[in-house]
C-alpha cells in the first residue's frame, strides 16, 4: 500500500461524525494526507476538535481552511453546501480536488458546479457508513471499513482526480462504486431516506395516541417498533437537509410505497388472504437476497 | 420457587416457536406442569417434536390432545382458532383453563367464547416475545424471560383461573400485565402490526423498481432498509392471520400513519423546514422514552 500520501493538505469542511472519522482514518491509516485541516463552525465544536487532536490544524473560517489544500471534502449537512461554496470558491487552489460526503448527490451538482473555479475538479462522494450519533466525538477511524463509497463524478471530470478520491476511500477501507447522481438519489431514497421518513412519522403517530394507549406503546414496544425508533434517533439538521435535497426521488418513492400500502390495506379490509400472503413472501425474498449478499 | 406444579396436564395446541418454547420452559423450569402434551398438525412437525423430546406426549388430533388436560394453550396462528375450537370444545374437561398465545385478542374472544363449555375458564394471553424464526426447532426455554405477557381475561372470568395463567407466565420469566382486548389490539397494531405491514410493503416497493435500481438497492441496503427487512422475515401464515384478525385497529393505525406521512411529504414538497424538524425531534423524543424504559 501507499508510499507517498495521496494529498499534501486535506481540508475537511465540517468536523462531525463523518469529517472527524475521515481525519482519524487519515492519521491512523497513513497514505492519505500529509496534513489534515479540520474546519468547524461553532466555537464549542472547534474547542472539542482541538482537544480530540485528530487534525493538524483547526480552523473556524472555511475560506482560510481551504487555502493551499489540494483536497477539500465537504462534511456538513447538504443544505449548507451553497453557502459554504460561496465562501470557499474564490480561495480554492488550482488543481485542487473538491469532494464531499453528503447523502444526496443531485443537489451537490446543483449547488457546487455553478461556482466551481477553472482547474478545480469536482468529485462528489457518499460513504455508505454512519451511526445514529453525531459530532466530533462520534467519529472513529474504522467507520468506513468494509462499507461502500459511491462516487458520482459528472461526465468529463478529470480521471486522475476521480482516481485520487477513489483511492482515498479505498485507503479508508471502503469499496468504491460509480453511479450517476440521479440513480444514486433514487437508490438512497428507497434504502435510506424513505425508511427514515417512515420511522420519524410512525413515532409521531404513536405520540399522538390518547395518553393511555401511548403509555402502553412505550411499555410494550415490541421489536418491530424498536427497530423503527433505532432508525429515528438521528441528527435533525442532517435529515431535514436530506429530505429537502432529495425531494423528487423521496416523494416519488413515498408515492409508490403509499400505493402499495393502500393495496395491502385494501386486501386486509376485504380479507384477500392470497394477496396478503404474496406481499409477505416478497418481503422474505428480498430479505434472503440481502442475507446472500451478507448485508444483513 | 414453586413446590406443586400449577397444572397436572398442560396441553399445547401447536408446537412451533411459541408452543415449543412453553413446553421447554415447563420442562426446564419446573413448577409449571407435571405432564406436557404437544399437539401438531403435520406429520413432519410431529416427528420433529418427538425427536426434540420437549413433550411427554405428542398428539396429532387436537380433540384427543386436550382430553384430561387442566390447561390448554392454543399456540397456532389466530386464523386457525375457530376450526380448532370446534374440534376441542366438546372434549375440554370441566374446570380446565383455556388460554392462548395469539398476537390478536379481540378475535380470540370472537372465535372461542361462543363455543366455550360451561365450567371451562377462558384466559387469553399474548407473550410479547418472539423471533423471526418459526417451527419446533426455533423454540427455547428462555424465550419469555424478561418480557411482558399481556392477559386479557373477559370480565367475570374466575379470578383463580386468571391467577394460574398469570403464575404460569411468571414462572416462564415474564412480567404479567392486564388489559382489555380492544386496548391490547390498538397497542400491538402500532408497536408491531403496522411496522410489519410497512416492512413487508417497502420490500415489495423496492422489488418493483426497474431491474437496474433494484440490483443497486440490494447492494447498498443501508442500515435503514436492513432494519426493515429484519422485521419482514417472519412467518407467512402467522402474519396473514394477524392482519386479518386485527383488521380494525390495523387499518385505523395505518390511516393515521398515512395522514402523518402525507403531511410530512407536503412539508418536504413545499420546503417547510420547521415542520420537518419538528417531526424528526418527536421521533427522537419517543426513542429517548424507550431507552429510559430500557426497551431499546
Ligand atoms: N451520519 C451519517 O450517518 C452520514 C452517513 C453518510 C453521509 N453523511 C453526510 O455527511 C455530512 C456530515 O454528517 P455528519 O454525520 O458528520 O454530521 P455531524 O456529526 O452533525 O457534523 C456536522 C458538521 O457540519 C457542521 N455544520 C452543521 N451545520 C452547518 C451549517 N449550516 N453551516 C456550516 N457548517 C455546519 C457542524 O459544525 P458545528 O458543530 O461547528 O456546528 C459539524 O462540523 C452530511 O452531509 C451527511 O448527509 C452522514
Ligand atoms: N412468533 C412470534 O414472534 C410470536 C410472538 C407472540 C405470539 N405469537 C403467536 O403465537 C402463535 C404461534 O406462533 P408461532 O410463532 O409458534 O408459529 P409457528 O412456529 O409457525 O408454529 C405454528 C404451529 O401451529 C400449527 N398450525 C399452523 N397452521 C395451523 C392450522 N391452520 N391449523 C392448525 N394448526 C396449525 C403448526 O403445525 P404444523 O407445523 O404441524 O403445521 C405449528 O405447530 C400465533 O398465534 C402467533 O400469533 C407469535
From TrEMBL, chains A, B:
Gene3D superfamilies, per the entry: 6-phosphogluconate dehydrogenase C-terminal like domain, NAD(P)-binding Rossmann-like Domain
UniProt cross-references to NCBIfam families, sorted A to Z: PRK07502.1 (NF005694)
Organism: Craurococcus roseus
Protein name as catalogued: Prephenate/arogenate dehydrogenase family protein
Organism ancestry: Bacteria, Pseudomonadati, Pseudomonadota, Alphaproteobacteria, Acetobacterales
Keywords attached to this entry: Oxidoreductase
Positions of the Prephenate/arogenate dehydrogenase domain: 8-296
Amino acid at each position: 500500500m501507499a508510499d507517498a500520501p495521496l494529498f499534501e493538505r486535506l481540508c475537511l469542511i465540517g468536523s462531525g461524525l463523518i469529517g472527524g472519522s475521515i481525519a482519524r482514518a487519515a492519521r491512523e491509516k497513513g497514505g492519505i494526507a500529509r496534513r489534515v485541516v479540520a474546519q468547524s463552525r461553532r466555537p464549542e465544536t472547534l474547542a472539542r476538535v482541538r482537544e480530540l487532536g485528530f487534525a493538524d490544524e483547526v480552523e473556524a473560517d472555511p475560506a482560510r481552511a481551504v487555502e493551499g489544500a489540494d483536497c477539500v471534502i465537504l462534511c456538513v449537512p447538504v443544505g449548507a453546501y451553497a453557502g459554504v461554496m460561496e465562501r470557499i470558491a474564490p480561495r480554492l487552489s488550482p488543481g485542487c480536488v473538491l469532494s464531499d460526503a453528503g447523502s444526496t448527490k443531485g443537489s451537490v451538482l446543483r449547488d457546487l458546479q455553478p461556482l466551481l473555479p477553472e482547474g478545480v475538479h469536482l468529485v462528489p462522494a457518499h460513504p455508505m457508513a454512519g451511526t445514529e450519533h453525531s459530532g466530533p466525538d462520534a467519529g472513529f477511524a474504522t467507520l468506513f471499513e468494509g462499507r461502500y463509497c459511491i462516487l458520482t463524478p459528472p461526465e468529463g471530470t478529470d480521471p486522475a482526480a476521480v482516481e485520487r478520491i477513489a483511492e482515498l476511500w479505498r485507503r479508508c477501507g471502503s469499496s468504491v462504486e460509480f453511479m450517476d447522481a440521479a440513480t444514486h438519489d433514487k437508490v438512497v431514497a428507497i434504502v435510506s431516506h424513505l425508511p427514515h421518513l417512515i420511522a420519524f412519522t410512525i413515532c409521531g403517530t404513536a405520540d399522538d395516541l390518547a395518553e393511555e394507549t401511548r403509555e402502553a406503546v412505550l411499555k410494550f414496544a415490541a421489536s418491530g417498533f424498536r427497530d423503527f425508533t433505532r432508525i429515528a434517533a438521528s441528527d435533525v439538521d442532517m435529515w431535514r437537509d436530506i429530505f429537502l435535497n432529495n425531494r423528487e426521488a423521496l416523494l416519488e418513492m413515498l408515492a409508490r410505497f403509499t400505493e402499495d400500502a393502500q393495496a395491502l390495506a385494501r386486501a386486509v379490509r376485504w380479507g384477500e388472504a392470497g394477496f396478503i400472503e404474496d406481499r409477505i413472501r416478497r418481503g422474505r425474498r428480498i430479505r434472503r437476497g440481502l442475507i446472500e449478499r451478507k448485508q444483513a
